[in-house]
Amino acid sequence: MNLESPKVNVAKSAEYLFNALTDVKNFEKLMPENIAKFEVIDENCFEFGLKGMPEIKLVKKGATPHSQVVLGAASSKLPFTLTANLTAVNDTTDVQLDFQGEFNPMMAMMIKGPITKFIETLAQNMDKL
Hints:
- This is SRPBCC family protein.
- The chain has helices at 14-21, 27-30, 105-124; strands spanning 2-4, 8-10, 35-42, 45-50, 56-64, 68-73, 80-89, 92-101.
- By secondary structure, it is of the alpha+beta class.
- It has one domain: Alpha-D-Glucose-1,6-Bisphosphate, Chain A, domain 4 (2-Layer Sandwich).
C-alpha cells in the first residue's frame, strides 16, 4: 500500500526542515489534535498514540541531507515506512509525505482512511516546525 500526502509549501529552507525532521522530538509538533500519547524513546525513536488507535513506535531509518528523512515501524508486525521528501523552491520548501506498507488486503482496507488523514495532518502541520 502506497499513500502520499498532498504537497505542501513551507516558508522554511530545506536545510532547516531537514534538521527539524531528523530531531524526532519535533514530530510532537506535527501530530493531530487527537494525540493521546507522545514519548521520545531515544534520539532515533519515538512512540505515539492517537485516541482509538494502537500505539505506534517509529524509528529513524535513514536520511539524505536536505532532501529526505525516512522513518519506519519499530515492530515487524506492521512493516511500513514514512518518508518526508523535501524539495527546495527558492527560499521555501515543498514537502510531501510518502507512506509505504505491506499489509494484507483486509488490514489495508481498515487503515487506509485513518493513515491518509494522519499523513495529511502531518504535512499540513509542517509550518509549525
